[in-house]
Task: structure prediction
Amino acid sequence: MKIFKIMAIAALLVLSGSVASAQQSKSDETLEFRPHWSIGVQGGAGYTLGKASFGKLVSPAAVLNFQWQFHHAFGLRLGLGGWQGKGVVNAPEEAIFPFRYGQINADVLMDLTSLIGGFDHKRLCSAYVFAGVGAAYGFDNASAVPYMAELQHYWENKFFVPGRFGAGVDFRLSDVVSLGLEANAGMYSDKFDSKYEEKSPLDWQFNLLGNLKFRLGKNTRPYQGSSDKVGADDAAAAAAAAAAAAPAAEAERLAAEKAAAEKAAAEKAAAEKAAAEKAAAEKAAAEKAAAEKAAAERAALASENSKDMKFAIGSAVIRKGDDAKLVELAEFLKANPDFTVDVVGYADRETGNPQINLEVSKKRAEAVAAKLVSLGVEESRITVDYKGDTVQPFPINEQNRVVICTVK
Result:
């Protein structure tokens, strides 16, 4: 068959130039391909070609595979499978009869992705083709007995030697497991479906199978070097020849100079790294100190400009003596737009009752806030609150008839 000849020729051509290669992984050049075994389970549908509608000739199919990957692009596979095939009789009326078969397959696989793109142990998707032969045993053909008159090749139990080929794709799920899909075709003798076909010497069985494969052992090992790395190895060979031709003293001198240069470069790099780390640390420390200083200065400025407004018993009227304080506070806020002010009203606990005191503290805080707004401070920068007599900020009772303006 042409397909087998083509694959054999391609395999010989590639193997002649690449079996001895290092087969380094594209994902990690410190690793190279390692031959390994894998086991796979396939399941899906088979279709026995015949003169009936497609759906009537579809049957279940399953295979257990053992694969030896001896090269990153080539492998050998032994499969145990089969299940069911179907035949069709078209006269005097159409009738379908199933039969069983088991089969051993021996295949040569070619990984097209690795063949073209090189070995990559982290590759997510790989496409492959294969060709091989099998030994099949057909049995349980009793359903064909009623149609023996129309079946020139009826059999009860029979051996077949099919050729086969196909293609598939594998998707890597982990370092060990892959999931794939394979389509293949088996070429059996004309007796496979018990029916004589004048125009065709072969019966065809097509399969579409899902494939779950488990690798046994690692597919990589540490890189061991390669004789076909033309550029690097030719340069190494030339250097070795030159070194062998030079006097021993000259070789030692060159080696000493190289070692000294490498040491000086390493010391320079270490010094530059240390200097950069020191500069970064000093910059970070300076920035932290500047931030702390700025925060301290802001806190001091806020504290310096915070004000207390005292009130008479039961009153929310701002005293004339406190007007100047509010003017000063308003001027500061207008000159420093990044500051805000909290205005909180209080009442003394010895006067009135909690309900009255709460209302008085509210009116006091609102009066101070309104005054600041009238002096040009944006209302959005003023937070107003009132505590009544629930909080006494000062130890002396009279001092708690107050509004405290805290700059932030």
User: Anything to note?
Assistant: The longest helix spans residues 248-305.
